[in-house]
Amino acid sequence: MVFGAFERMVAFRYLRARRKEGFISVIAGFSLLGIGLGVATLIVVMAVMNGFRQELLGRILGINGHVGVYGTATALGDYDPLAEAIRRLPSVTRAIPTVEGQVMATSQAGAAGAIVRGVRPDDLLARDIFRKGFSGDAEVLRGGDAVVIGYRLAEKLGLRIGDTISLISPKGNATAFGTVPRMRGYTIAGTFNVGMFEYDNGFIFMPLEAAQTYFRLPGAVTQIEVFLDNPDRVPEVRGEIFRLAGGNVRIYDWQQANASFFNAIQVERNVMFLILTLIILVAAFNIISSLIMLVKDKGRDIAILRTMGATRGMVMRIFFLAGASVGVVGTVFGTLLGVWFATNIENIRQFIQSIIGRELFAAEIYFLTQLPAKVDTGEVVAVVTMALGLSFAATVYPSWRAANLDPVEALRYE
Fold first, then answer.
1. Quick check: 92 and 131 in contact, CB under 8 A?
2. Cα→Cα distances 158→138, 143, 167, 318, Å
3. Contact indicator for 191, 135 with CB cutoff of 8 Å
4. How far is CA 139 from CA 120, 135, 184, 203, 371, in A?
């Protein structure tokens, strides 16, 4: 072993301070606690950031296509042959013709702005996100005059399945008396819950033919939503779609649509990593200060050990082991605490909310209804490695100083 039995015995004896060295032991304890809390906090924050990004990406791409193919004008005509050609591309799983427009949704309880998307019923219910959060009768959608709305929008307007919702289009009918808003009522065939506030509170789906009639786009769609087996393969698929369409389309992918959003998350994640690393760095400086004080306090002991035959290397290893033990124990404690906390963070949030009686994670602000967390093994290893590296580095100078202590000077006035 690198450390001999004698070195381990002396190092651990120095960590168990007597009354006169109690203050040094207190500093070492705070160092251990600081490293532990720093590591735990860093693991939890990184896990929440990862979970937040993964959940948002999954929900955004679960309801939106990875690539949107638009016409060069306001609408895309002759869309079915193009959609069929896109479906045959290797990485494409679905290509869905879609009509999209803005409306004002009204009921007797109130009104709210909403986005209407017209798709074929089979295409709508084929999405994984609707298989989990859909309630109602899907067959009613085939009637042509039914819609599916987000459950939060239904609650806001006081509507239930089977009720009628009125949609008012901003593009009205031109009459002799001016432009009159175009309004039509639709039966609510079902509600969906995708777990993302923006969609559950403001999206309405209706059959494609009904949307074409309502938005006055006969034989045309506003876009073709393309879903891929791997969202990261967007760049190569864009070129293939552009070639298939002969260059007569505009292509807009999820990376362009959400670039600022995900870039902001990445920047915030990096900044939080740097800030929380300072906690571990401060704890490492505490190790340095406690070891320097220990070396000064044990100067006579070091001198006696040297005169009895202990080499400089032995003395250095004794104090290195004493300081590194604090870092190792703190890192292990922080890792276990951080992984446990990140794994149970939603239950902990619910428990704290039940105690203080306030909401800690508002869906209106954070877009998600639950606090997500994803523990990445690679990141945990990186955090542990960094904490151990800082802890070991903090012990080098005090250990070197102890090893180079002159026994004659230390014992001159004893």
1. no
2. 21, 23, 15, 72
3. yes
4. 12, 12, 21, 20, 34
Q: What is the DSSP string of 149-168?
A: EEHHHHHHHT--TT-EEEEE
Tell me, yes or no, if the pTM score tops 0.85: no
DSSP letter assigned to residue 198: H
Element (DSSP H or E) covering residue 114:
strand 110-119
Residue with tokens 């690679």: 378
Cα–Cα dist 115/109, whole Å: 19
Q: Measured in whole angstroms, how far is the alpha carbon of residue 237 from the centre of its chain?
A: 26
Q: Tell me how far the alpha carbon of residue 226 is from its chain's centroid.
A: 24
Q: Calculate the alpha carbon distances from 214 to 122, 147, 186, 259 in Å.
A: 20, 12, 11, 32
Q: Mind giving me the DSSP string for 16-85?
A: S--GGGHHHHHHHHHHHHHHHHHHHHHHHHHHHHHHHHHHHHHHHHHHS-SEEEEESSSSEESHHHHHHH
pLDDT tens by residue, the chain, 414 residues:
566 676 677 766 766 655 555 555 677 777 788 888 888 888 888 888 888 777 777 767 767 888 888 887 778 888 888 888 888 888 888 888 999 888 999 988 888 889 999 888 888 777 766 666 778 777 777 767 888 898 889 999 998 888 899 998 877 665 555 566 778 889 888 888 877 777 888 899 988 888 888 888 888 898 888 888 887 788 888 888 888 877 788 888 887 777 777 777 778 778 888 887 887 787 777 777 777 777 777 677 777 777 777 777 777 888 788 778 888 888 899 899 999 988 888 888 778 877 887 766 665 555 565 677 888 888 889 888 888 888 888 888 878 877 777 666 656 655
Look up residue 176 and give its amino acid: A
Q: How far apart are CA 35 and CA 327, in angstroms?
A: 7
Strand partners, 307: none
CA angle 405, 410, 411 (to 5 degrees): 140
